[in-house]
Amino acid sequence: MTAAPAGARLVHACAGFRGAVSLAVALAVPSAVTEHDLIVFTTAGVIVLTLLLGLFMSAVVRWARLPDDDGPRQEPLLAQTTAAQEARRAARARRAARNGGTGGFAAAQEGRAAPREPARGLAAG
Q: Does residue 125 have a pLDDT over 50?
């Protein structure tokens, strides 16, 4: 897996949700702790800074020049390709079964196991 470009990493870092969990943890600290007020104040400051970063998010995204998401365009092509490959495999298996073989050598050459008959006396499925 390759590392994401620097622009994408910056967008992800700026877009994170940090406020809700941080505030919940800060408020869960017992008030008997000597620095309770400082913890809550610091957490509130971080939340405010995070919200202010959100104002600049559109500028960060423009600066990062992220590529368009072409996933929705690629998915139908991938589905058609996969369906065609599976149809060819099924046709080969039917042809091999009709010819009396189980696809042994040809199946091994393709990197897949030959189909097996269910054990006698056991329910199939």
A: no
